[in-house]
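For the sake of transparency, this paper describes our internal protein records without simplification. An entry from our holdings is shown next, in its original layout:
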Amino acid sequence: MYQELRQIRAEMTSAESMFAVGEIEVRGETLKTFTNAPATLGDVWALASMHGDKTYLIYEDESWSYTQAYAETASIVNWMHANDIKQGDRVALAFRNYPEWMLLYWALTAAGITVVGMNAWWVTDEMQYGLEDSAPKAFIADIERLERFLPVRDQFPDMKVIGLRLPEPVEGVIDYADLKNHGGEMPKVDVDGDEDACIFYTSGTTGRPKGAQLTQRGCVLNLMNVAFMTAASNAAEARANGTEDQLPAPGEGPAPTMLVTTPLFHVTANNCVVQPATLAGGTLIFMYKWEAGAALKIIDTHKVTNLSGVPVMAREIIMHPDFDKYDTSSLVTLGGGGAQLQPDLVGKIDKALENGKANTGYGMTETCGLITAVVGAFFLDKPESCGPLVPTLEGKVIDTDGNDLPQGEVGELCVKGANVIKGYLNREEATEESIQSGWLRTGDIARIDDEGFVFIVDRAKDMVLRGGENIYCAEVESALFKHDNVAECTVFGVEDERLGEEVGAAIVVAEGTELTTDELREHCAKLLANFKIPRYIWLRTEKLPRNASGKFLKRELRDTLDPADAA
């Protein structure tokens, strides 16, 4: 099977292929790229508009065809130009996952206007910081975000403020309807691939978040990487099984129906779900907020083919008490990225879905999305891996002194390619620290096996250092999740006078089950060395706190839990 994967990847990246890989000079570095890729996101959107009357966006009882969506994006661009917002300017978006996000994103990027993705969970102070840092000429928000912004409105006297889906007019705020109804054909704008497409803020471990500058080229390469990785894995699996002749030709298979579950101000949804589905002529369904029961109903009603979120969402889907009441046979893949998919979940998804496969993608804002991806039989065979590198990235593992390590050894993963970001907005020092001679230091501890599959061991800053022993939180979490009564868990270090740190674990017990700390430790003893077994365990019934992407707020949780309350 792995031999077939190598063959398929070589064939698909050859000079004659649509995924032909070559090199390009970018900011003084020679980097890998797809030589046949569209030049810009505007080119991608123009290609997508050819899907015409196919349904593109669905939100509750509203829908847009591709033709309607393209017309609305043209109107938005013309409004921007009429209001002196042009190529090279920035526009900030601050609202939940409404379909208008994608309409604004495609319009602005096609016009060479940079989208600033504002975290919808930011409070007033954080919002003010993001606006001061990015200096947009316009700010577009729904009523919740608008109410947080208005107390600092006077700090931005020259910035146009636009309200989206407002329940009633707000003084001094332009209604989005003005943009939608402005009219006109899509203007021709000559956009360079190295221009900023968007600025997405990374949630740093300390201090203020940094604005990552994702380029037009980087975003286009990412959506092609997503398409490549799925096609290559499916083709390799089919060739190994002798069913390759049953695969549809490129571009001839059914278009996906995707349920968008994570925030559009991050690359997981915006770059890795929405953009590839758009180019393929897919249908995108948006939810007001994530709720597994509601998602199951949408899957059944709309025959959703792909659900890609953070791992906890997949777990909530298959563990939902009403799972068997809904038809999920349309699902082709279930999984996602944004956090590591725990190994136990791979087999559980495979068992739960009638026709679907587990998949995952590992990536970063700093690579405009994917670094690796894996699906189906390859994931079942290597459930602890996040897959091989995408074609446009080189990879290596280094030690703490920056020296390259031999294959198979554990160290910090570094990647290099044309889809790595330009840098961090207004943060030259941080850019130079993270990107060195084109190599991005991911901050993730990993190893690469002899098949080229990457195994993320942990975040470099998430290790527990217990008496000189490195304990990887992901390994302990993986062991805990293998207990059937564990619904959620997160592992972190707890300060200890003698050993420096001890292992702590916050655990949510599955609904309708019981669990004791003694049972958990006995379970872990079968899977982990004694020093890795959690010393502090907090059993909970309420869900663990999460950020807007659905990732557990590990540090926030650690800081609020009292070791004296642990068992």
